[in-house]
Amino acid sequence: MSRLNPFAVLLVICGLAATAARGDTITYGQLAITSPGLAFSASDNVVVSNATSALYPGYTFSAEFCENSACSSPIASSSDSLLRFTDMTLTCASAEGCGLIDIRFQATNAMLDDSPSPAGTATVDLGLDGTATEAVVGSATICITGPHAICAPDLSGTHSFSTSFDGAFSASTNGAVPVSSGFSVYGQIEIFHLDNGNSVSLANSLDIDADIEPALGAEPVPEPGTLALTVPPLLLLLGVGLRKSRKLRSIA
After folding, report:
1. Does 1 fall in a domain?
2. Do 65 and 76 touch, CB atoms closer than 8 A?
3. How far is CA 35 from the centre of its chain?
4. Residue 2: how many CB atoms within 10 A of its CB?
5. CA–CA distance, 21 with 16 (Å, rounded to integer)
6. d(CA 26, CA 213)
7. Given this model, what pLDDT does residue 2 score?
8. In terms of residue numbers, what domain contains 53?
C-alpha cells in the first residue's frame, strides 16, 4: 500500500481553498467628476450640483457618478460592476450659444475579488440614453488602464471604447479587455455646441457595465485567514507522516 505524501495534500487543499476564496465583486478606490465641475469621493458616490467653469462659459452642469448600489436611484443589475453617470443636466445660458465642452469622470484603483492578484476579462457595455431639447452632436468615450495599457489625454488607448451621436442624445458600444486588480476607468462625454436656452440630460444614465471572467489558470493568493485555518492541520498531518516514516525505517 502506497504511503500518503503530506506535501501533495498541502498543495491540493491550499489550491481548493484559493478557489473557494474567489468572489466576483469589484470595488473602486476613488470616484471623481473632474470636468466641468470638480468633486472627489473615497466612497462609491460623487455628486456635482449647478457647477460652472471659466473654461466653458455659459454652461451650468449637474451630475452624479456612482456604483449602482450607492446611486440615488439604483437599478436592478446582476453585473460584477455597474458604474453609472446619471442625473446629469447640462444647460446653456449664453446669448451667443455655448461651444465645445468635455464632461469627464473616473473610477480608479479597482480591486477584483478583494485580492491583490486575480485577473480576467472585463466585458464592457457602454450605453448612453439621454434626451436633448435640440439636435446635438458629440461622442462618449471610455478608456481602461491596466498593467499593459494606458490612456492618452483624449482617452484614446489600447483599451478605449468610443461611440458618437448626431441628433438624439443616445448611443452605445461594447467590447472586452483584459484587466487585473488596480485598473481604472476614465470616461468622457463631448458635446460640440448648444444654443442659448437648450439643454441635454441623462435622466437614466451612461452605464458602464463590466462582468469579469477569470483568466484561465489564474487563481488569487489565499486570504491570510484562509491560510491560518488550512495550514496548521496540514502541518500536523505532515508531522504525523514524517513520524510514521521514521518508525517504519526503525522497524526495518
Report:
1. no
2. no
3. 20
4. 4
5. 9
6. 12
7. 43
8. 24-214
